[in-house]
Design brief:
Rossmann fold; 5 domains; 7-stranded parallel beta sheet; helicase; DNA repair; DNA_helicase_UvrD/REP; alpha/beta; nucleotide-binding; globular
């Protein structure tokens, strides 16, 4: 037991300091506190910007939730302060109002406008940024467990072969068993790179190289495996590699420039879910925030009682080692549960430990919490099912209890006629530790006629739907393979029966083959989402998909997998074998990975069944906890991994892997420590399960067989009387089915429905805009500026609707006006424009043999009739890349720009103002006009266009703007680099009346074309997106000054050094320099609050 009593944490009263740890209990508002800390610090510190705050958490879902909660906290606080409409129970707003109401509101408003610069992400995302700053390879989705397992197997085999060939080496008694154990040890060492490799009681590896001791040589083999694997993953790092390399970069003696850039950016760091960190992550945090700093602070927020991810490498011991007792504050006020249920849980957990140094603090109910919401029904029922050693024995009692709860428990409800009502099935959650047990309970409930659904109990990739989709994609990828085609025929998508596959004739297979070929073509052209859309349009397939009791399950799995594949392919067309490979990757993820964890298949009124791990962070009105809660028996096949005191680090406990186990000589103390740690984690898992309920918990309690049958419930319930009958806790014998009425679906009050009368006009407050949508709306070509969402379209191209084919081009008698203009007379139109965009996107402008590079890309991309113009395309592109650009870009050529200085196809979605801010395109033009006049540019070439837009373009700008920038170019030398928003234009501009074709691309002609299609407006919108992007990704530069302006390339007229110039401006290239302060003013205007 610890000898200190932590103080209660308060967002407004607690003085934050470096090293402060906030320990929350379940339901105590941890996420609210993190959001509150950020908002309060932003509001009270005039010089603190939201870009200076770093918030990290454990999973991507948690990061997304935190990001949303923090932004909503900022918005609600700002609005309450500005309108002076502050609720009495809003302590944060009340405190800020007394300090400086309007000043705090202004600082919160600034944070909202700059919210895109906030870093709220997983630790792996943060590490990726550090690696990118250092110019090192960055992990994408990361290698899956399947990939890593294959690498480990390969390396272990190679190391064992090397050992066997070494003269004098001892031989393997059982090579297969040794290899299996070596693979397990190496895999665990990879997942926790700072683990010590233990032989007997020593972790000193100094003498391993020359030793003849078998265990020491085995440890040397483990180390050699790790070294080889690290070399293999050097250019394609795993997530664990990412942590190691980041820790090394930020450590003293690492990359000082990267360390300085990272440390100088952040003033406050908050580690959410700190109990799920590990030693490496703490090295990273402490590399950025030194323990003795006072001007910058690192805060940890977590609950060690909920540290349940040991199997994923989380190390609660690392958290405990960093915790400073005098700097611990607690959150013990529960905002979730009824007061009586909290007393019941206090009775069970008070005085208990959940691991060494992890104690349970008494928890209190929130002010105004109801004593109970379920009347005389006990808040906690412990249902004794006798001595049981098999999980199957608790399936039926669990189902009985659910049926009983549906028939007997009454929940307070002011809307009900009697003031209370029976629960809906959806208000009951059954928590399990075994997905197999979850499926059995679901089946038992359904047999009783009780609707039940599962989530988080298994991977969607283990489903029948995943198998069907994989077989179909496999057939798409191998169109000539009849055996694969027959397997695809038996899927839900084609509908043949397995028993009849052999009877399919060649003619029947030809029909199926044609359908599969059409689907494959659709996937190649438009992507997996387009294929799914086509599937859903086929009523026969849909009928098969949703048929039977598993119909909703099938539809949910189908949607889930399609979304994963769509995201993995960036919504673009791809070859079917890409989908097969991605499904293989997804199958390699663990079942509880949030990406593939199976979703609830229905939003209908049904009992929810999920694992305790999946339920962490959630809450339910009524919970049934169903597990034996027994410790898995120690066995020789399980490697001892445990923590041991290290005398070299003040007896700090370090994670150790027992290498002797590989040779079947395990450390007996290590086995005992491992079992103790696993039992402590099982207790923490029990704590998580028991604290999910708002009103009632039913615990299915199976007694232990004997003293050796160690159960969590035996130790935690030892103080509870065998027979108890109180309003808080009731112990009930539950060995026979209770008398309970059969479940009957809840009857709905049948009210005669009528047509509601709309008494006010509808007001749209949010739009998803695009540049093309805005311009079409302005010209009367669309009824709305909202960007259309086409489910069969894989991407977004602002030029699709504005590339035009003119009439009246110059005839063949008109001279080009330059020695060569290869693309001058090539066919125009949307298809040509799209193809050329792809060509320019894929080419490496700086290739040594540029012509060969262009030819390779053209041969890869250009097909059909356009391929007849192969030579003109190659020569035309070559000349365009070797054209000095002129204007503000001087003698720079596109061929001078390396891939690292060109961000191709920059897709973005940019937040705009709320509807009440009343921001319009007209106002945007007014801001640009003012900036130009302030800079003394009264004769600017775009000024007349901007005045026209200001007077006529009244379209509102609100919601979300999306688009795709052809290329963001970086030009200049380090320390003096500028960015240009650029676009490739294939518009053909020569026309009747020009003396030569090239004259159609003069600066005046380009200006006319730019204005006609509103390209300047496009560039201004894109510029704001780039400004926000740079502000977030490169905070050390002045993004406003760095973005020099726009450069639009009309590539037909870019014919190398022979391209004419006039007043320094090159024909075919339209450049424009942004006035000082333009981008920040536009960004502020586009994100401002309501007037």
């Amino acid at each position: 037991m610890t000898d200190f009593v932590a103080q209660e944490f308060s967002i407004t009263d607690t003085q934050l300091e470096n090293g402060l740890t906030i320990e929350a209990s379940a339901g105590s508002g941890k996420t609210f506190s993190v959001a509150g800390i950020v908002a309060f610090q932003i509001a009270t510190q005039p010089n603190l910007r939201i870009s200076e705050i770093l918030v990290t958490t454990f999973t991507r879902n948690a990061a997304a939730e935190l990001r949303d909660r923090i932004r909503r906290q900022l918005v609600s606080l700002e609005r309450a302060l500005r309108e002076n409409n502050i609720a009495e129970d809003d302590d944060i707003a009340q405190t800020l109002a007394k300090l400086d109401r309007m000043g705090c509101a202004d600082r919160l408003d600034r944070a909202i406008r700059e919210f895109d610069s906030a870093t709220i992400a997983t630790i792996h995302s943060v590490c990726s940024r550090v690696m990118a700053m250092a110019g090192l390879p960055v992990v994408g989705e990361g290698r899956t467990s399947s990939d890593i397992a294959q690498t480990v197997q390969f390396v272990v085999n190679a190391v064992m072969v090397t050992h066997a060939a070494t003269p004098g080496a001892w031989g393997f008694t059982d090579p297969k068993k040794f290899a299996q154990r070596l693979e397990i040890a190496v895999t665990n060492a990879l997942s926790s790179p700072r683990s010590q490799l233990l032989v007997a009681e020593s972790t000193d590896e100094t003498d391993d190289v020359n030793s003849v001791d078998q265990d020491l040589q085995t440890r040397r083999m483990v180390r050699e495996c790790l070294t080889r694997i690290n070399r293999i993953t050097q250019s394609d790092p795993t997530f664990d590699d990412l942590l190691v390399r980041t820790a090394n970069l930020l450590a003293q003696g690492g990359d000082e420039a990267v360390r300085h850039a990272f440390t100088s950016r952040f003033t406050i760091a908050i580690i959410d879910e700190a109990q799920d960190t590990d030693q490496l992550q703490w090295e990273i945090f402490r590399g950025v925030f030194q323990a003795d700093e006072t001007s910058r602070m690192l805060l940890a927020v977590g609950d060690p009682k909920q540290a349940i991810y040991r199997f994923r490498g989380a190390d609660v011991e690392a958290y405990l080692a960093q915790r400073i007792p005098s700097k611990v504050r607690t959150l013990t006020r529960n905002w979730r549960s009824d007061a009586r249920l909290i007393r019941a849980l206090n009775t069970i957990f008070s005085g208990k430990e959940f691991g060494e140094g992890i104690e349970y603090p008494e928890v209190s109910a929130r002010d105004g919490a109801p004593e109970t919401s379920i009347g005389v029904f006990p808040s906690l029922a412990i249902l004794g099912v006798g001595v049981q050693t098999n999980q199957n024995a608790i399936v039926k009692p669990t189902a009985w209890r659910v049926r009983e709860l549906l028939a007997e428990i009454l929940i307070d409800d002011k809307t009900a006629q009697e003031g209370h009502r029976l629960p809906h099935p959806r208000e009951i959650c059954v928590l399990v530790n075994s997905k197999a047990n979850g499926r059995k309970i679901e089946k038992e409930l359904r047999a009783m006629g009780i609707p039940a659904v599962s989530s988080g109990t298994e991977s969607v990739m283990a489903s029948v739907m995943a198998s069907d989709m994989r077989r179909l994609f496999d057939a798409m990828a191998h169109p000539g393979d009849r055996s694969r085609l027959r397997l695809a025929a038996a899927t839900v998508f084609i509908g043949e029966q397995l028993v009849t596959l052999g009877a399919l004739t060649d003619d029947m297979l030809d029909v199926i083959s044609q359908r599969v070929f059409e689907w494959a073509s659709l996937v190649r052209r438009k992507g997996v989402n387009a294929w799914a859309f086509d599937i859903r349009r086929d009523t026969n397939i849909v009928e098969r998909l949703v048929a039977g009791r598993e119909g909703e399950r099938q539809e949910t799995d189908f949607t889930h997998i399609v979304e994963l594949l769509h995201a993995a392919t960036d919504g673009k067309g791809c070859a079917p074998d890409v989908l097969v490979n991605e499904m293989d990757r997804l199958e390699g993820l663990e079942d509880m990975n949030e990406t593939v964890s199976r979703r609830v298949e229905s939003d209908r009124d049904a009992v929810q069944i999920m694992t305790v791990h999946a339920a962490k962070g959630l809450e339910f009105p009524v919970v049934v906890v169903a597990d034996l809660w027994k410790l898995t028996k120690s066995n020789a096949s399980k490697i001892p991994i445990f923590h041991r005191p290290d005398a070299d680090t003040d007896n700090q406990r370090h994670r150790a892997i027992d290498v002797g186990w590989i040779n079947e000589r395990p450390n007996s103390l290590g086995i005992a420590l491992r079992d103790a740690e696993e039992f402590a984690e099982k207790k923490r898992l029990f704590y998580v399960a028991m604290t999910r309920a708002k009103h009632h918990v039913s615990l299915i309690h199976a007694a232990a067989e004997n003293d050796k049958d160690l159960r969590v419930t035996s130790t935690l319930l030892e103080d509870i009387a065998e027979e108890s009958d109180t309003s808080c806790i009731r112990v009930i014998s539950y060995t026979t089915p209770p008398q309970a009425a059969p479940y009957a679906p809840r009857s709905q009050n049948k009210v005669k429905l009528g047509t509601a009368e709309l008494t006010h006009s509808l007001r749209q407050t949010y739009q998803r805009l695009s540049f093309s949508g805005l311009t079409k709306y302005q010209r009367g070509q669309a009824s709305s500026p909202i960007a259309p969402i086409d489910p069969t379209h894989g991407g977004q191209d602002d030029d699709d609707d504005i590339i035009t084919i003119r009439s009246g081009y110059t005839d063949s008698s008109v001279d080009a006006g330059v020695p060569a203009m290869p693309m001058g007379r090539l066919p125009g139109g949307t298809y040509f424009g799209k193809v050329m965009h792809v060509v320019y996107e894929l080419i490496d402008f700086s290739a040594t043999d540029l012509e060969a590079e262009i030819a390779a890309v053209v041969d890869r991309v250009v097909v059909g009739a356009l391929a007849e113009h192969r030579e003109e395309l190659i020569q035309g592109v070559l000349l365009s890349l070797r054209t000095p650009l002129g204007g503000i870009m001087g003698d720079t050529e596109l061929s001078h720009i390396s891939p690292s200085d060109r961000l191709a196809e920059m897709n973005f979605e940019m937040g705009l103002a709320d509807v009440d801010a009343e921001v319009t395109v007209s106002e945007m033009a007014a801001v640009v006009e003012k900036c130009l006049r302030d800079a003394g540019r009264e004769d600017d070439i775009l000024l007349p266009y901007l005045i026209g837009v200001k007077e006529t373009f009244k379209s509102p700008l609100l919601g979300l703007m999306n688009g795709s920038i052809d290329a963001l170019l970086r030009v200049g030398t380090p320390g003096n680099q500028h960015y240009f928003i650029t676009d490739y234009k294939t518009n053909r501009l020569d026309h009747d009346g020009v003396t030569t074709m090239i004259d159609g691309y003069s600066r005046e002609a380009l200006l006319e074309e730019m204005e006609h299609h509103d390209y300047p407006l496009q560039a201004l919108i894109y510029g704001v997106a780039v400004y926000r992007h740079l502000r977030w990704t490169a905070p050390d530069i002045d993004a406003d000054a760095a973005i020099a302006g726009m450069a639009y390339f009309f590539v037909r007229a870019m014919v190398g050094l022979d391209t004419p110039t006039h007043d320094g401006h090159r024909h075919g290239v339209f450049t424009w320099q942004a006035p000082p302060g333009l981008w920040s003013q536009l960004s502020d205007m586009l994100s401002r609050s309501a007037k």
